[in-house]
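Please go through the sequence line and token line underneath and see whether the fold suits the sequence. See right below:
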Amino acid sequence: MEDKIVIVKIVINRHLQSMLGRSELVDAWWNSENKAFDGKTPDEVYQTGAEGRLSVYQYVLGCSDGYW
């Protein structure tokens, strides 16, 4: 049996909150077009399934480590 990690928005939002400082900005980030996702919103990518969730999570982690 394979162990799978489920990436939920609350985990991503913790990182975003630390970087952006306000929940309004976190909400806006999820719904804004993003070049890293070929113009799609992070929410659109997240909603595509496990691969999309991982992509958004890795992007946010990279940004929190300074890889803007």
